[in-house]
Amino acid sequence: MPVVSDRISERVTEDFGTSAPQVLSALERLGVDVDVDPERVHAAVLLVSRRSRTMLDDALEHAGSDWRDLLERAGLADDGWRQRVDDEFGRAVATQARRTDHL
To answer: What is the C-alpha separation between 86 and 37, in angstroms, rounded?
Structure first.
């Protein structure tokens, strides 16, 4: 189960308030391919959800069935995905950046 990064966790709290623990748990339960940075998929889920619980549930389901399409929908499918995540969620701390430096 992938651990949610601090910056994703902060955004979940901002976007979903009292529902944040359930959202974080759902993100951690996502089956993410070992070749994909889990933060990338988590960010895609949040971007596509647009702070809507209904859209979040749809994005979580989509991530479980077709995460590549979800990355496309979120604008995170190309090589510039790291910059987009930094722009949307703030820069990652150095230890997170090293830990999630693959795909």
So the answer is: 14
pLDDT tens-digit profile of 53-66? 999 999 999 998 88
Q: Which residues contact 46 (CB under 8 A, 6 or more apart)?
A: 8, 11, 12, 15, 56, 59
Specify the pTM.
0.85
DSSP sequence for 5-70? PHHHHHHHHHHHGGGHHHHHHHHHHS---TTS-HHHHHHHHHHHHTT-HHHHHHHHHHHHHHHHHH
Cβ density class 33-52: b for 16+ within 10 Å, e for less: eeeebbbbbbbbbbbbbeee
